[in-house]
Each structure stands twice: as structure tokens, then as C-alpha cells.
Design a protein that fits this description.
Blueprint: H1 2-21, H2 44-47, H3 52-58, H4 70-82, H5 88-95, H6 97-101, H7 123-126, E1 129-132, E2 140-142, E3 147-150, E4 161-164, H8 171-175, E5 180-181, E6 188-190, H9 192-197, H10 200-203, H11 208-212, H12 256-267, E7 270-275, E8 285-294, E9 310-318, E10 324-328, E11 330-331, E12 337-338, E13 346-349, E14 355-356, E15 364-368, E16 376-384, E17 393-402, H13 406-413, E18 422-431, H14 456-472
Parallel strand pairs: 3-4
Antiparallel strand pairs: 1-2, 5-6, 7-8, 8-16, 9-10, 9-17, 11-12, 13-14, 13-15, 17-18
């Protein structure tokens, strides 16, 4: 009975999303579990013969490891136990889509899964997507066979047939999996797509692929080349690393380069500003305002399963002797965040109103402290200037991020697995003795990196310049 409720919930959630995005007219029926065999799909080893560069970009990424991700495997087992298996297919549609459409999931333990189903979000699955029943909850339509769909309307292949599908150029393609709604109670768990849809980026027709499938990270940068051997040279070939912010999992599979790209993306996501008094006397109450602007992401930050993501500010004030006057947001030896003003994430509640990090048990949102696209938030910190402080005081603030709490990873994967903490941005200021002459007060240059974000005009200008250069050559 519960399984029927879940499937009904999936249909209702898809209908709601279709109505909200205006995609009903172009919808196609979603492929159901067991509709195909895993033998209907091609291994990536065939694809790499002609698409070696694209394969190398994809290998080691979170799409590559969508099923093998040990964090996912542990979490989905717990979710299955908590829900008597009713969400097995729901969770697996994005993490092992071939496993679902071939009927190899459930059981959730993977005991009946083929090798190709364990390849996560792989080449042949993505390129036999022939339509969609709307954004959210993996409402994809797949048509395995000799025809492969993609973003080029003039593609020709010697090994297979090629067809253009506009969906590949739209955020709605990504939104099939990057918008997750609890099929039982309708609670939105992952709103990456919908927060983009409500943003300035959507208004300017800047889609997910413009940032996540280019070299420019937060601004479009053309990647001229060929999609495959023998294919025509094009002004831009979409990159297939499609990196987000995960620095924990890729190194487990030897893909340090993917984690490095994630760090680079995180470090280009924000602008920071600081307001602090230039001078202060003993006994004064010092007020420090720190602002964070989401300048480089077309969705809220953090995003994804944001109830476990952690983004926070560490603020440290030290005097000229190196003594700490004030500190908030440091991480102790056990990985606990100490006295952070705000954790920028989603806080979910279970049916009893208690906080839970198990989204499958969530019934409501207690808090949403994330930062929306182009949004600025401000934290206020205060302390009293001590009598014995040695001038000048250095105020140092760092915006930090990690994919999951350390204690959660300790329980799931063991205490030997450390969660990387990424320094996303930093900024500083100096507080002087009031008697210090003004011409001797040298404020440090801001460490904040300006990331003005991406606009349709920027894309047009860059692409136009690139095309001009290619023609001249």
C-alpha cells in the first residue's frame, strides 16, 4: 500500500511541477521501472572510442560515482529501513537510473544490479533521454537504441544516429534530478532548479549548462573543439565534468582534479565585505558587520541536500601579540563548529517538529538560512575591547564550507574519513589605537574575490569574440 502511495505521490509531484513550469504541452510519459533491460544500454567503453575527451572529463565526477558514492550507499540503506523500502525506487532514479528502468532496483542492496547499472549517470543513459514528463523527481523519458539525442541540430554520426533535442539546452534537463520533492508529503528537499527558475539568471536565459558545462565557472567561456573523432569543429563543446561543490567523494576514487575544480568553483561563488571601526579604546563595544553576497551561483548556496551542507563564517580578532581577543566559527579537533553565528543551510523537522538530517523523515522546514542568487546577508559580531590588548588588532574573517558534518561522516564511513573544509573567501580589517596618526593606519587590501556572475550579455560578447577569432584563423 505504501509503495502505491509513493508512486501516486511521484505522479502528483510531477504534475505540480509541470503546472508551475508551463511544460505540460511538451511532456512525454516518464519511463517506468522495469520497462527496459540493462542490456538495452551501451557501456561507456564504446562511447569513449569516439568521445575520448568527453569521457575523460566525466570519469571520476559525481555523475560517474552517483551510485558508487559510499555516503549515498550508507544513507540509502538507512532510508530504506526507515521507510520499509518504499523510497528505494524514488532515490535510485537519479543515482542509478539504468538500475531502475531495468527493474534491478529494488532490492536496495544492489545484489541484483548489473555492472552497467552501477555506472551511475553514464553516457548512454543521458543521451538516450528523448523527453521529459517535467522537472523534479527524475521524470525522464528514455528510448534506448541506436539514436542518441544531444544539443546539436546538425550532428551526424557514423556509429549511431544523432538527433537534436532542445531539452539538452535547457535547465529543465538538469532539473529532472536536481529538484527533489518528497513523494509522500510534497516537501521540497532539493530546490536547485526552482531557486534558479525564480532568479535573475532565468530571466536572462542563463541556464545551468552555461555555468556548469563551460570553462568559465561563473562566466561563460567557450570551449572550441570537436564532440568526437571525425565530428565537425565547433565554437563550443559542452564540458562533461559538470562539477558542483563536492570535495569529499571524488578523492576517494582518485579524482583529486575533480575536487580541485570544486574548490575553484566554491572560491568564485561569493563577494564579502566588512565594516569595523578603524580605532577603538579599552572598554569600547566593538561592532563588526560581515556581509556575504551570492554573486556567482544561479541557485541558493549551499544547494542539493542542503540540510547536511555546512557553510559558515569564522571570525578571529587577534592583537599585536597574537593573543585571541574574539573568535567565532572555529573547528575543534573533533570537527565540531564552535560558536558560529549562522550555519547557512536548510534545517528540516520530522513529524514531531524535531530537527532531522534524514530528509526522508522530514515533514517541514524549520529554517532556511541559505543565500539566494544575487542576495546579500549580513552577520553582526560584537565584543568589548579589553584593557590589556596590544595594538593594532587584526580582524580576520573566512567563509568556510564542507559537504557534510564530520560527526555524520564518522558514523557512516568511519572516523578515519575527514571532511575537507574549504576556505571559500576571506576578508580582513585592522583596528588601531585612537592615538595612531591617520596617515599610519594602513588597512589591508580585501581578500574578497569579486565574482559578478554571469549574464546573457556576457555570454553573447564572449561567444561573439571567440567566433571572430576562429574565423580570422
Amino acid at each position: 500500500m505504501r509503495g502505491t502511495v509513493v508512486k501516486l505521490g511521484l505522479v502528483l509531484a510531477a504534475m505540480l511541477l509541470l503546472l508551475s513550469t508551463g511544460s505540460v504541452a511538451t511532456a512525454t510519459p516518464a519511463t517506468q521501472a522495469g520497462e527496459y533491460s540493462s542490456d538495452d544500454f551501451a557501456y561507456e567503453s564504446k562511447c569513449r572510442q569516439c568521445h575520448a575527451i568527453i569521457y575523460a572529463e566525466w570519469e571520476g565526477t559525481m555523475h560517474f560515482n552517483a551510485y558508487l558514492d559510499p555516503f549515498y550507499l550508507e544513507e540509502v540503506k538507512i532510508a530504506s529501513e526507515d521507510t520499509n523500502g518504499s523510497l528505494d525506487e524514488f532515490c535510485s532514479r537519479c543515482h542509478t537510473p539504468i538500475g531502475v528502468v531495468s527493474g534491478e532496483i529494488p532490492p536496495i542492496d544492489g545484489s541484483e544490479m548489473s555492472d552497467i547499472a552501477k555506472l551511475g549517470v553514464q553516457c548512454d543513459f543521458c543521451h538516450v533521454v528523448s523527453g521529459s514528463n517535467g522537472t523534479g523527481n527524475a521524470q525522464f523519458t528514455v528510448t534506448p537504441g541506436n539514436t542518441k539525442w544531444g544539443p546539436f541540430d546538425d550532428a551526424r554520426g557514423n556509429y549511431h544516429e544523432s538527433e537534436y533535442l532542445e531539452l539538452f539546452t535547457q535547465s529543465e534537463y538538469c532539473g529532472m534530478c536536481h529538484q527533489v520533492i518528497n513523494p509522500v508529503n510534497g516537501l521540497v528537499i532539493d530546490d536547485t532548479y526552482s531557486t534558479w527558475k525564480d532568479s535573475q539568471y532565468a530571466e536572462e536565459n542563463v541556464v545551468c549548462q552555461d555555468c556548469h558545462m563551460t570553462e568559465g565557472i561563473t562566466q561563460f567561456k567557450a570551449n572550441p573543439g570537436r564532440a568526437g573523432s571525425g565530428a565537425p569543429k565547433r565554437d563550443h563543446i559542452p564540458l562533461h565534468d559538470i562539477v558542483g561543490a563536492n570535495t569529499l567523494i571524488p578523492p576517494m576514487f582518485g579524482a583529486e582534479n575533480v575536487a580541485d575544480m570544486a574548490v575553484e568553483r566554491l572560491q568564485k561563488a561569493t563577494i564579502m565585505d566588512i565594516s569595523a571601526p578603524e580605532t577603538a579604546s579599552a572598554g569600547d563595544e566593538i561592532l563588526i558587520d560581515l556581509s556575504i553576497t551570492n554573486s556567482g551561483a544561479g541557485h541558493k548556496i549551499p544547494t542539493g541536500v542542503s540540510e547536511i551542507r555546512e557553510m559558515w563564517l569564522e571570525l578571529t580578532v587577534t592583537d599585536a601579540n597574537g593573543d585571541i581577543i574574539y573568535n567565532a566559527g572555529s573547528v575543534d579537533a573533533d570537527g565540531n563548529i564552535i560558536d558560529a553565528k549562522v550555519l547557512y543551510n536548510n534545517v528540516l523537522a520530522d513529524i514531531e517538529g524535531k530537527e532531522t538530517k534524514s530528509f526522508w523523515l522530514a515533514e517541514s522546514v524549520l529554517e532556511d538560512n541559505r543565500i539566494g542568487p544575487k542576495e546579500t546577508v549580513t552577520e553582526e559580531h560584537s565584543f568589548v575591547m579589553p584593557e590589556n590588548a596590544a595594538y593594532p588588532l587584526t580582524v580576520q574573517s573566512t567563509l568556510k564550507y564542507r559537504s557534510a558534518p564530520q560527526d555524520m561522516i564518522d558514523k557512516l564511513l568511519g572516523e578515519e574519513t575527514g571532511v575537507p573544509v574549504v576556505d571559500m573567501n576571506e576578508i580582513s580589517a585592522i583596528i588601531y589605537d585612537p592615538s595612531t596618526p591617520a596617515d599610519e593606519r594602513n588597512q589591508p587590501e580585501s581578500g574578497s574575490t569579486s565574482t559578478p556572475g554571469f549574464s546573457a550579455l556576457t555570454a553573447a560578447m564572449v561567444l561573439g569574440i571567440t567566433m571572430y577569432i576562429l574565423k580570422r584563423k
